[in-house]
Amino acid sequence: MRVLVLGHGKTGRLVAEIAAEHGHSVHVLDARENPDAAALTPPFVAGFDTVIDFTTPEAAVQNMRACLACGAKMVVGTTGWYDKLADMRGLAERKQAGLLYGTNFSIGVQVMLQLARQMGAALQGHGYTFAIEEVHHASKLDSPSGTAISLGQAVEAGASLKGVPITASREGDETGVHVLIAKSDVDRITLKHESFSRRAFAEGAVRAAEWLSTRTGCYDLRDVYTQL
After folding, report:
1. What mean pLDDT is reported for the chain?
2. What pTM did the predictor assign?
3. Is pLDDT at 74 greater than 80 in this prediction?
4. 140 is known as an active-site residue
5. What is d(CA 87, CA 223) in angstroms, rounded to the nearest whole number?
């Protein structure tokens, strides 16, 4: 495939490397080359089979508007823009484009989300309270992380409750730690995912782009990760 990577941060660079390892041709645009999505003209976007975005929430929305309007297939690993999800889904469907989004492209995290929902359902009505703790690197923009929010939503859906508290910390170069705690008067259950490398996120994003390349429509990674 011809892959366009938007964003030249730590994860974006790794996405480009892994896409090349998979045998794809890769072009990377950083923020300075693409202010306000100005570089994403229809002729330029048409030169790529898939687009992968790891930028910022503001940039991602502009990038999606430009790419999806061209009918592009787009994987978005950026979080913090989901208040615009309905608009982006509608645009993708109108233009017969492809959009696959997710708060975390690590397969391990996707499994944790499934387990969190099952854990909430199994403990419902047995006197447990739930809490989430997460730690990320000091330069991470969103707090709490999209993954922590998704984890809370999974527990809430399983346990039929609202408002699982999230404690977020930003320190050093921590790749990501997410902990779900269920506590009762007599015991405590802990479900933990600790990331050692951004490679898991990048590998998942490349596999998602390969999967999306033959599809149109809008997809949440939580619904399709087992197919990647």
Report:
1. 94
2. 0.86
3. yes
4. yes
5. 20
